């Protein structure tokens, strides 16, 4: 069965970048209108910021954190919930196929609250916070398909959700099986990180929620005449007529492009009050997914996916039948590569090119084409294309702004944590990094990203903004209308120039339209034409139509709205469209809520909010006309979004409620703001690049969002940062870098430039690219901003990866206690002379007194302290203690010896463990202390990062601390969660997992694996506990979705098992009681396989775990140890860790008797490994393993397919067997698309299904989703699970006939006739779907008739072939090198659907008795194939014979009889 995309006439391709989700009351399709289905349920999980108390509706258009297909609802571990543990909301969406009518009782078992809805009616209400418990509900159901929905919250403790049923006549409950559950297939599942929000109790449309109706200032008019359903991708006026451009993508597959776009001319739009007054004429068709249209000098131009064309050659009906190509641009057939536009001015067009992305939304890396994600300028006359600016992702909208400036919108995704409205300026880079097909960064990527004028927070106020339109007049003149496809409606953007650049605010404007909006057009009377679409899945507004064309007509109403929001000194001035009421003005400052946050761009889809905080409105003043309110707001910072909300009631003087109470202002520049000095730490990926330097995330172990690679161009590659330091002086610099083996192994030089002063530095080798080290140096920095650059200079070696750089004061730094933060009665004093600085800290008379200083450390580790103090005689003479805390965590009691008097100052030395960066070091009079000292200063000697030499990979865990030179990466480190003692590594099994798309397990301890792809890692493990799914063992890690594990794990039934797992599947072997307390685990990689085994006798004998997995996707991983998914009370111990050569693969006895084909057939799988390797290849993570003479599917979802294509007609025979309820299929008629064939075969070929318990069009014998089998014939012939069945598939260009065990069960006609030539494939459906194949063979069924003649002949009437005599008879001349030529004419008559002309033998030699020429006769045709009937169609046949000068020639005639054959596969 297929779990990816499918070509279907009724489906729609999806633009990934955004997602539309079912809301709490969203309609679910009825059985009569179900889209294509696949078995299972959709699980969507939304992480919440706080503990939910009850099931809540998620805010509309929110993108989930997890969106996956699950087989059923039987979940009880963090892994079952995408690795999340607490505070989340789950939506389960499915359809249930009820076998018989009757009363069904459903049971929800959940911890915490849950509810079940069938056909949108509540059946089980099990809401609230509670432990795992059951709740039942009964409902009468008819036989057939019903919609099913579960809502569930997890607030803490266990996370459990299970759905069971008791069918009519049953005595017990059972988990609702996969066989009756389906969900929409072909859905691109897009996720985004960060917390999501439920609708609040005080939220209402326009006040915490999107508007839900048309703006009161407008009336809505439909512009769609009957039968007109345009998916609008462009609107343009042509005089008084409206041109409507439509998308035309109707095949539902992102891996294919369609050419079905159209241009329509609508007349009567400007005056229409209903669609009956509008007439339409089609102007163009067969356009390739067009996204822009423009009329210039009466001619129509359209931007297709790969080119700009002008429509030409209109026929009598007005249809333009030809295209003049104006320009082309880089294009690689990716479904997301659009050309959004168009604008035109002064001889130039402007458009935006979106980037290539993968299914799921991740940016394709590398891109298939150069210069994607750029804005282009096209010369109308020459077609020359200029790339204006870059760093765009999905720049859907383009429009004019003030003073003919160009503005564009971009949609959230990789490197875009929010949507954007951008003022595009030539040469600028707007933040979305790409890597070209040559491995080089995008042409604009080598500079600091320019900010968006307006950030549009995802799901809060936008999701897929489209065409910005400058408002020409009226209350909002100079602002923009910005429609949105997925959030829907139209929003409004106010912009102002601050510091020479635009920034501004975003407001709601209208909803209530029939579709999500892609384009708008303005009418002279102020009306707004709105056109839209719903592309399915994640590109369209939920619950709306897939097409739309309407008009918003002004009706003279003035709404009460925020007209604009301007930055003023100390805050903002909000101007309203009406005077504010006196009631609202009372206690005005309390009527506003303000927050601010920044964003952290990452290579993942979307990005988290950072630094979110609530701000205080200290004052609010109103203007005399009561239309302007000025807010004084403390704590504003640049490069933040400032969110202002004035919840209702908030009314105008005339009683009108505020239309929308919220505004989002993008505060890029804040005049007068003085940035605080940095803590000395700088992520280099946030710097400015040159010469090919780029952001990368390939190698684990970096900090922040990535590292800088591409330092490969001598003289130009560099990264530059600005370091704002509080004080001038000498600083120690720690540069975190990796220096791997390319282009050579060894030290490499770079140039370090600090404030214009250069020096050469040498970075020692780190051995591999996944091993990170520190380079230390001392630099002199100024107070304020310093420029620091790392350059691949003319005499350098370059070719290193650079992660971060940290500066901390060199040597010993004094921190005066009186300058710190004092609390609990501690205070600065000067009574007793002899102190350092401006005084000392006294007041340590009462418990709770404290002094805190901020200490900047260069690295993690112990630092030497010298503390100046006085300890006089009060209240007693003797030693006294204070407690030392670092970053709020107690470290030790510090003893201060007697100094004799308060005027005598002494010092003590000690050590504290600091973290790299700024540390809060506090000395506190705590419980058990004596206090009563005067604290003068703290001197801190700068610690430095560990410098690593060459270390062994093996570890016996002797010592007191983990060797960070060996273990270079600790994922999600919690230093309290692991330790070394007694020669063992101890790791607490804390909550978290490595599954679910994000590794949440704590303390996954890793080192680089050998780079040759052949290795074994081994460790002896011990763990125990009662928490189900607690795990401990070996891990290989190459990224969040690229990992493998060999672990011991506790099952829910209490049995401990071993598990070999990858993200694509798993295999288990259960253990004897207590074996998990002393078990040796081994993971090994060799020959492209990843395998696991265990030993219970210290390696004397081994047991394999499953059949292994393909290593694809792991690359050169990091490997190591982990314990996770526990409660924290379980501790795994590891006695040692070794890295070595892998063992030999387990032997598989050879097939004793190979299969042999019957007459006419050729073997494809005869039971031998040799034939498997010779004739087949793989796409996807799964594989087939041989067991005797049969081959078993194992691993993840993939396809094994023939290296050679096969031309129809042919007969394919094979045997298959399923041990149980398993799943697979046979694919035919698809092209080889390399690594992506596993997906493209689903779209471009056909699958003959193997699965006896699925839906009719998805079960054994079905042509998947096309035609079900003859059930009666199929069921009579089908042998049960565990027994072998045989397929014969007769494949013709337009037909597949299926025979099961000799019985015809299906005969499907392909209307596309697309099966003529393609590969044959056997599917691996995933872990647990174990299907066996054997004895695969194929036979060509080509039909033909022929007759021999001496260059001539005849055939029966249905296939006629006439051949004239050659035009000349050759006379060969000895000793002369010459090629002799002759021609004749053949005439073809055929009544067949296709025909082919061939000649045999392929190599023909002219003979004269026993003498033969040494070179063959060459025969050529002017035409060899026909696709329809022909009569006496002439074909020129050319004969050539080369005679060399040394060719011996015998007197007489040389002749050869040739056979010309006219054949057909479709008589």
From TrEMBL:
- Every copy of the PA14 domain together lies at 36-180
* SUPFAM superfamilies per record: Anthrax protective antigen, Concanavalin A-like lectins/glucanases, Galactose-binding domain-like, Soluble quinoprotein glucose dehydrogenase
Q: Which residues form the signal peptide?
A: 1-31
Q: Which Pfam families match?
A: 3keto-disac_hyd, CBM_35, GH43_C2, PA14
> Taxonomically, which superkingdom?
Bacteria
Give yes or no: UniProt keyword Signal. Answer: yes
Q: Which InterPro entries match?
A: AL/BT2_dom, CBM6, ConA-like_dom_sf, Galactose-bd-like_sf, GH43_C2, PA14/GLEYA, PA14_dom, Quinoprot_gluc/sorb_DH_b-prop
Entry keyword set: Signal
Question: Which positions fall inside the CBM6 domain?
Answer: 680-808, 813-941
Q: Name one GO molecular function term.
A: hydrolase activity
Name listed for the protein in its UniProt record:
Carbohydrate-binding protein with CBM35 doain
What are the top taxonomic ranks of the organism? Answer: Bacteria, Bacillati, Actinomycetota, Thermoleophilia, Solirubrobacterales
């Amino acid at each position: 069965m297929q779990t990816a995309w499918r070509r279907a006439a009724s489906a729609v391709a999806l633009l990934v970048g955004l997602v539309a989700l079912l809301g709490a009351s969203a309609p679910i399709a009825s059985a009569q209108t179900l889209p294509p289905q696949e078995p299972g349920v959709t699980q969507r999980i939304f992480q919440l910021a706080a503990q939910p108390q009850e099931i809540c509706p998620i805010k509309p258009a929110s993108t989930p954190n997890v969106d996956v297909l699950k087989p059923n609802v039987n979940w009880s571990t963090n892994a079952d919930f995408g690795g999340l543990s607490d505070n989340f909301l789950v939506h389960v969406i499915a359809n249930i196929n009820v076998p018989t009518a009757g009363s069904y009782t459903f049971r929800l078992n959940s911890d915490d609250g849950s509810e079940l809805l069938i056909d949108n009616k509540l059946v089980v209400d099990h809401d609230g916070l509670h432990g795992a418990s059951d709740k039942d509900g009964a409902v009468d159901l008819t036989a057939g398909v019903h919609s099913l929905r579960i809502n569930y919250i997890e607030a803490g403790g266990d996370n459990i959700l299970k759905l069971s049923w008791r069918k009519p006549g049953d005595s017990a409950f059972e988990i609702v099986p996969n066989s009756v559950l389906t969900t929409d297939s072909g859905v691109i599942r897009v996720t985004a990180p960060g917390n999501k929000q439920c609708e609040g109790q005080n939220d209402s449309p326009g006040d915490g929620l999107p508007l839900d109706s048309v703006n009161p200032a407008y009336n809505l008019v439909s512009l769609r005449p009957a039968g007109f359903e345009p998916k609008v991708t462009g609107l343009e006026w042509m005089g008084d007529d409206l041109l409507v451009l439509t998308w035309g993508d109707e095949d539902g597959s992102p891996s294919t492009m369609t050419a079905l776009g159209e241009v329509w001319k609508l007349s009567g739009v400007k005056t229409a009050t209903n669609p009956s007054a509008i007439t339409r004429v089609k102007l163009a068709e067969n356009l390739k997914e067009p996204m822009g249209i423009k009329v210039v000098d009466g001619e129509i131009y359209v931007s297709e996916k790969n080119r700009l064309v002008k429509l030409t050659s209109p026929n009598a009906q007005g249809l333009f039948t030809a295209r003049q190509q104006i320009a082309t641009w880089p294009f690689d057939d990716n479904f997301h590569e659009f050309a959004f536009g168009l604008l035109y001015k002064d001889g130039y067009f402007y458009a935006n090119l979106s980037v290539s992305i993968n299914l799921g939304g991740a940016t394709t890396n590398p891109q298939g084409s150069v210069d994607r994600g750029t804005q282009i300028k096209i010369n109308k006359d020459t077609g020359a294309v200029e790339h204006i600016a870059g760093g765009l992702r999905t720049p859907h909208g383009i429009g004019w702004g003030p003073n003919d400036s160009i503005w564009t919108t971009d949609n959230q995704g990789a490197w875009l944590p929010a949507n954007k409205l951008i003022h595009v300026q030539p040469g600028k880079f707007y933040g979305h990094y790409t890597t070209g097909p040559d491995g080089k960064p995008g042409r604009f990527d080598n500079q600091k990203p320019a900010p968006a004028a307006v950030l549009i927070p995802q799901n809060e106020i936008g999701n897929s903004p489209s065409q910005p339109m400058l408002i020409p007049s009226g209350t909002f003149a100079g602002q923009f209308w910005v429609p949105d496809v997925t959030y829907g409606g139209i929003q409004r953007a106010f912009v102002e120039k601050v510091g020479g650049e635009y920034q501004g605010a975003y407001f709601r404007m209208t909803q209530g339209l029939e579709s999500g909006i892609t384009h708008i057009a303005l009418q002279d009377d102020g009306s707004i034409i709105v056109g839209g679409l719903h592309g399915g899945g994640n590109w369209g507004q939920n619950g709306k139509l897939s097409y739309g064309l309407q008009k918003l007509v002004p009706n003279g109403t003035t709404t009460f709205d925020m007209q604009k929001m301007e930055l003023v000194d100390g805050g903002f001035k909000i101007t309203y469209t009406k005077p504010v009421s006196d009631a609202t003005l009372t206690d005005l400052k309390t009527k506003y809520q303000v927050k601010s946050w920044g964003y952290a761009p990452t290579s993942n889809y979307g990005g988290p909010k950072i630094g979110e905080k609530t701000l205080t409105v200290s004052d609010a003043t109103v203007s005399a006309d009561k239309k302007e309110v000025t807010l004084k707001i403390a704590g504003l910072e640049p490069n933040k979004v400032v969110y202002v909300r004035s919840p209702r009631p908030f009314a105008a003087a005339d009683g009108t409620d505020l239309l929308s109470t919220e505004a989002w202002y993008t505060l890029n520049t804040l005049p007068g703001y003085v940035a605080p000095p940095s803590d000395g730490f700088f992520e280099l990926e946030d710097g400015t690049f040159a010469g090919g330097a780029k952001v990368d995330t390939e190698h684990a172990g970096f900090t922040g969002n990535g590292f800088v690679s591409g330092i490969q161009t001598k003289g130009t590659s560099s990264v530059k940062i600005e370091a704002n330091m509080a004080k001038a002086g000498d600083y120690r610099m720690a540069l975190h870098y990796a220096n791997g083996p390319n282009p050579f192994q060894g030290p490499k030089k770079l140039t370090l430039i600090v404030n214009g002063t250069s020096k050469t530095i040498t970075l020692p080798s780190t051995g591999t690219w996944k091993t990170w080290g520190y380079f230390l140096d001392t630099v002199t920095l100024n107070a304020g901003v310093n420029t620091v650059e790392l350059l691949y200079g003319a005499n350098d070696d370059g070719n290193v990866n650079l992660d971060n750089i940290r500066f901390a004061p060199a040597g010993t730094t004094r921190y005066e206690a009186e300058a710190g933060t004092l609390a609990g009665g501690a205070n600065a004093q000067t009574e007793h002379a002899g102190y350092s600085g401006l005084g000392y800290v006294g007041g340590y008379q009462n418990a709770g007194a404290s002094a805190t200083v901020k200490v900047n450390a260069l690295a993690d580790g112990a630092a030497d302290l010298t503390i100046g103090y006085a300890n006089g005689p009060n209240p007693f003479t003797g030693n006294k203690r204070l407690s030392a805390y670092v970053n709020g965590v107690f470290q030790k009691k510090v003893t201060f010896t007697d100094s004799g008097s308060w005027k005598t100052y002494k010092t003590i030395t000690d050590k504290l463990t600091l973290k790299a960066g700024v540390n809060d070091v506090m000395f506190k009079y705590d419980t058990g202390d004596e206090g009563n000292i005067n604290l003068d200063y703290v001197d801190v000697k700068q610690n430095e990062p560990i410098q690593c030499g060459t270390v062994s990979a093996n570890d016996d865990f002797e010592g007191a601390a983990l060797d960070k030179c060996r273990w270079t990466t600790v994922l999600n480190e919690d230093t309290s969660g692991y330790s070394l003692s007694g020669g063992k590594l101890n790791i607490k099994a804390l909550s978290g997992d490595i599954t679910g798309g994000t590794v949440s397990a704590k303390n996954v301890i890793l080192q680089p694996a050998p780079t040759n792809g052949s290795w074994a890692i081994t460790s002896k493990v011990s763990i125990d506990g009662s928490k189900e799914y607690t795990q401990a063992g070996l891990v290989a890690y190459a990224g969040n979705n690229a990992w493998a594990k060999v672990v011991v794990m506790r099952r829910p039934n209490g049995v401990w098992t071993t598990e070999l797992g990858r993200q694509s599947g798993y295999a288990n072997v259960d253990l004897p009681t207590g074996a998990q307390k002393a078990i040796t685990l081994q993971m090994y990689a060799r020959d492209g396989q990843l395998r696991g085994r265990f030993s219970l006798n210290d390696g004397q004998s081994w047991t394999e775990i499953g059949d292994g997995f393909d290593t694809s996707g792991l690359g050169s991983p990091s490997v190591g140890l982990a314990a996770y998914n526990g409660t924290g009370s379980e501790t795994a111990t590891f006695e040692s860790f070794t890295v070595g050569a892998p063992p030999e693969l387990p032997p598989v006895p050879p097939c004793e008797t190979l299969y042999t084909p019957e007459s006419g057939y050729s073997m494809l799988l005869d039971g031998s490994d040799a034939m498997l390797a010779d004739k087949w290849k793989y796409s996807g993570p799964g594989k087939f393993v041989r067991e005797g003479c049969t081959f078993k599917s194992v691993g993840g979802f993939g396809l094994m397919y023939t290296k050679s294509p096969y031309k129809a007609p042919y007969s394919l025979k094979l045997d298959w067997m399923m041990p149980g309820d398993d799943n697979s299929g046979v694919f035919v008629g698809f092209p080889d698309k390399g690594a992506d064939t596993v997906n493209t075969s689903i779209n471009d070929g056909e699958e003959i299904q193997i699965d006896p318990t699925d839906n009719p069009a998805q079960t054994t014998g079905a042509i998947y989703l096309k035609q079900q089998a003859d059930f009666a014939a199929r069921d009579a012939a089908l042998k049960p699970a565990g027994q072998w069945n045989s397929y014969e598939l007769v494949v013709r260009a337009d037909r597949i006939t299926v025979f099961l065990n000799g019985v015809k069960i299906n005969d499907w006609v392909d209307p596309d006739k697309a099966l003529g030539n393609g590969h044959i494939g056997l599917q691996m459906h995933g872990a647990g779907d174990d299907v066996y194949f054997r004895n695969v063979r194929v036979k060509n069924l080509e039909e033909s008739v022929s007759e021999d003649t001496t260059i001539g002949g005849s055939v029966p009437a249905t296939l006629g072939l006439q051949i004239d005599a050659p035009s000349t008879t050759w006379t060969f001349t000895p000793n002369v090198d010459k090629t002799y030529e002759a021609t004749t004419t053949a005439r073809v008559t055929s009544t067949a659907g296709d025909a082919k002309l061939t000649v045999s033998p392929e190599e023909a030699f002219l003979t004269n008795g026993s003498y033969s020429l040494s070179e063959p006769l060459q025969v050529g045709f002017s035409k060899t194939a026909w696709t329809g009937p022909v009569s006496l169609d002439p074909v020129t046949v050319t004969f050539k014979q080369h005679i060399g000068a040394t060719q011996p020639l015998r007197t007489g005639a040389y002749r050869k009889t040739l056979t010309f054959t006219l054949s057909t596969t479709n008589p």
